[in-house]
C-alpha cells in the first residue's frame, strides 16, 4: 500500500530540504575551517628596530634563586657566582649546556642561553666582588 500522493510530495520536499541544508552546512564548515587554518595576513606596520640585547645583569637574575642575589651566596650547597672569573663561568655553562658536565638542573638552565648571553652573564658576575669565605652577604 502506497502513501497518499500529498504525503509523498511533502516527504520528498522535506528530504530535499534536508539534503540541501546538509550540503550547505558542510560547505560552510569547510570554508570556515580553511579560513581558520590559514595564518592571518600581516598587518601593515612601520618597521621596528630589532630589540636590544638583554643585558648580562638581567639574565643573571635567573640565577638568584639558587646562587643568591648577584651570585653572592652565603650557602654551601651552590657555588657562588660573584667574582667568578669569566672563562671559568663560560666553561662551566657550556659544559652543562653540552651535557659534558652532569647535573640535574643546570643542564636544562644552560640550554636556554646562547654563547653571547653566557658571555654577558660571565662578564656581569666577574665584575661583582666575591664574598669572603665565612662571611654571609
Q: How does this model look, in words?
A:
The protein has 137 residues and is an all-alpha fold. The protein folds into 2 domains: 1-35; 56-127, Cytochrome Bc1 Complex, Chain D, domain 2 (Orthogonal Bundle), CATH 1.10.760.10. It has 6 helices and no strands. The chain has helices spanning 5-37, 56-60, 64-67, 86-98, 106-110, 115-127.
At the fourth CATH level, what is the homologous superfamily of the largest domain? Cytochrome c-like domain
By DSSP, the count of extended strands is 0
- Name the shape in a single word: elongated
The overall pLDDT, averaged over residues, is 73
SSE pattern:
HHHHHH
Rg result: 33 Å
What is the CATH architecture annotation of the largest domain? Orthogonal Bundle
Question: How many discrete domains?
Answer: 2
Category from helices, strands and their pairing: mainly alpha
* Fraction of residues in helix: 40-55%
Give the percentage of residues in beta strands: under 5%
Assembly state (oligomeric):
single chain
Number of helices: 6
Which runs of at least 5 residues are low in confidence (pLDDT < 50)? 45-51
Sheet with most strands: none
CATH topology of the largest domain: Cytochrome Bc1 Complex, Chain D, domain 2
CATH class of the largest domain: Mainly Alpha
Could you tell me how far the N terminus lies from the C terminus, measured between alpha carbons in angstroms?
100 Å
